[in-house]
Amino acid sequence: MPSWDQYRPPAFTYDPVLKKLLCTHPDLGWNLLVYDPAANSFRIGESVYPGKPSKQILGGLVYDSLNREVLMIGGVSKENGAMPTCLY
Question: What is the pTM of this model?
């Protein structure tokens, strides 16, 4: 099995409002992949995580049920050291 430095599992969350599974990974260029189980289809979104986050530190995707939003947590930018939280 590869070490954690070489391989990271994708970040997943389920959006119950859209009824879709959301995923991101460095091999997707940090784009958001949206899977629709009802249609058994997927698409890759246009929005991209800002900067080049560290795949070793990335926190993952979270569905915020209070605000009905999907957030991507953490991932320190290699350019400026910032750790942005993104709203999708």
Answer: 0.69
